[in-house]
Specification:
Elements: H1 30-35, E1 66-68, E2 79-82, E3 90-96, H2 104-115, E4 119-123, H3 134-145, H4 148-163, E5 168-177, H5 179-190, E6 196-200, H6 208-211, E7 218-223, H7 231-244, E8 248-253, H8 268-289
Parallel strand pairs: 3-4, 3-5, 5-6, 6-7, 7-8
Antiparallel strand pairs: 1-2, 2-4
Helix pairs in contact: 4-5
Length: 292
Amino acid sequence: MKRYTLPLVVVLATACAGPSSDAGSSEVAGDAMDAHAHAGAVPLNPTAEGQLPPSIIGEGGELLGHDVAYYEANPATRGYLAVPEGAGPFPALIIVHEWDGLKDRVRQVADDLAAEGYITLAADLFGGRVGTTREENMALVQEAQGNLDEVIDNLDAAAGFLRSRDDVTGKVGAMGWCFGGGIALSYGLGGENHEATAIFYGRLVDDPEQLAAMDHEVYGTFARLDQGPSPEQVDAFEQALQAAGIANDLHVYDEVNHGFWLRVDEDPETRSGPALDAWQRLKAYLGRTLGQ
């Protein structure tokens, strides 16, 4: 597949989140990673109709996965692997963190996706580092911007790691939020073959020729009150996908803003309805593209 990488620009006014409540610093979080090293498998427990995954409503539990070294080119890189109980085989997902690095909210999402029946690897694109301020976050993003080939290589290694497991069906998808949403799209255009790309508000492309590199349906969830990307940019992305002949399931939700899906608990009255619809769409999309 021809490699494409797009600009990973984060608009400060609409960046993924402010300083996170997740523990961590811009140093390698070795102690935190060691704490997860001997966790067990995740019980299969798909959400019922009308139910959101616990992680995004602030009710994520104790982490059940474990940290893994999947990228030999950077020994400091540690992803978080959540595996469903049972022999499988299961389809697999790579999930990509926001602009502040791999933190426990994303690890909890990995556990919830494992509960749905997906072997889930939360990738680490910052070499074990996380940010706690806007300035630290932007420095990490800018470093990634300067090493786009390494970002794609990192995710190729993640996909290879998953496909090497005998409990994986061979089908792998990628999804992410904000910075990670743009990365997921970059990976869909320039990474090794995989079967799904799910974007939650991230940097987009409006060039049909470039988007023609995609070989599978694309999922996207966006917010009308967002400017990164704006609804107009989402419309241009959708038109370009259609012009390129790429199937897609995109939706812009009214009355919510950037970051609404990963942190429903910050405004549950406004965010719960859109988040539930986006979750139900996501489950259907992953079922279509990766199978269960």
